[in-house]
Amino acid sequence: MNPGDEVRPELLDALDHFSRQWLAGPGRFDYTAKAADPRAYTCFFSTINMPKLWAMLDRTPWLTTGLPDTDWGLTELGCGPGTFLWATLIWLEQHAPDALARLTTVTGVDRLPRWLDLAQRLAAPLRTRRPFRHIDFRFVKADWREQLRRPGDWLIFGNVLNEAPTDDAAWVRCVEARTVLVIEPGTQAVFARLLPVRDAMRQAAWHVHFPCPRADTPCPMTAGNWCHFCVNRFQVPFVQRIAAKAARLNPRHNFCAFAFSRQPPPFEPAVSWRCLSHLRRANRSGIRWLCDGTHLGEALLNRHERTPANRPFLEADWGDLLAIRPPRPPAAHGPRTRLNHDETVTIVR
């Protein structure tokens, strides 16, 4: 990309076309109908999608410690230009270099040759960088359902399940990976399609590491509500320029995500709560939505009950996992509860 290319009309027209498709609801989209479409998607949406994976991995860093001490592999189904492959490599280089050194195979699977060609071109400069020279990059033309039994340790579904023709999650029984990461658009309709996946994974003896602190009961989200998170889409200057020209001025980019593993999570489900909102302040009190996988409600901490021990409740970010001790009694599982001065809150990372 050359300076100024990010605001060319053909790029902005393509982004507008994508937006209209997504607003029409879940379904299989054609991201390569016009010559400018793959480039537009890669410049804008790949850039703002990468932080979604980083937000989840920052809150589940133990997933890398559960990797084998030997060689391991990473696969993205529906890889497009390789968005979440590159995001994973960047995160590993910064936070888990030992795991990156053992990563030997990176595979992108997509049904469209145009995407695979672009992913190959984007992989070329990585092959010359020292941290990635030992990795074998492979790109396979196939439907994602045909590759579920592909050997590997990490399997990523990147914005692909929302395009599946049905909500049937029977494919879960075919997965042979150790860890499955799911990142999808953060809409109510998409979350409804992910709930059968959550239930099928649980029934197949998988453990949920994100977002649910426990998943042995049905999701407590009621009709009209959905579990989602957000990243700031304006983290990169040229994305700010694209967004300004495309009149996409909302900095929040919502997403739904799940992390599943064959291994149980290291946190204590009995005291764990996921933050499902930013902190809201009212009358010198802090209020935010919490969920333990079974109960969902707003929790309030007022200034009279505030102590250094429970202050992390106010400092946590949307998506963080909180450990609240002692375990909250059943009376504290209502739609609006209060934290007490004798409760201790820690942010689990």
Quick summary of this structure?
The chain is an alpha/beta fold and 349 residues long. It is 30% helix and 24% strand. It has nine helices and 15 strands.
SSE layout:
Blueprint: H1 9-23, H2 37-58, H3 62-65, E1 72-77, H4 83-95, H5 97-102, E2 103-110, H6 113-127, E3 136-141, E4 154-158, E5 179-185, H7 188-203, E6 207-210, E7 229-232, H8 237-245, E8 252-261, E9 272-275, E10 280-282, E11 285-291, E12 296-301, H9 312-315, E13 321-325, E14 336-338, E15 344-348
Parallel strand pairs: 1-2, 1-4, 2-3, 4-5, 12-14
Antiparallel strand pairs: 5-8, 6-8, 7-8, 9-11, 9-13, 10-11, 11-12, 13-15
Helix pairs in contact: 1-2, 2-4
For this structure, the CATH topology of the largest domain is Rossmann fold
Any guess at the CATH architecture of the largest domain? 3-Layer(aba) Sandwich
Percent range of helical residues: 25-40%
Total beta-strand segments: 15
Low confidence ranges: none
Q: What is the overall pLDDT average?
A: 87
CATH superfamily of the largest domain: Vaccinia Virus protein VP39
Count structural domains. 2
> How do the SSEs run, as a string of H and E?
HHHEHHEHEEEHEEHEEEEEHEEE
Based on secondary structure, the structural category is alpha/beta
| Main sheet characteristics | 8 strands, mixed
Strand residue percentage: 15-25%
Continuous helix count: 9
Can you walk through the features of this model?
Helix 1 (9-23) crosses helix 2 (37-58) and helix 2 (37-58) runs parallel beside helix 4. The protein folds into 2 domains: 5-261, Rossmann fold; 269-348, OB fold (Dihydrolipoamide Acetyltransferase, E2P). A hairpin with a 2-residue loop joins strand 10 and strand 11 (285-291). It is of the alpha/beta class. The mean pLDDT is 87. It has helices spanning 9-23, 37-58, 62-65, 83-95, 97-102, 113-127, 188-203, 237-245, 312-315, and strands at residues 72-77, 103-110, 136-141, 154-158, 179-185, 207-210, 229-232, 252-261, 272-275, 280-282, 285-291, 296-301, 321-325, 336-338, 344-348.
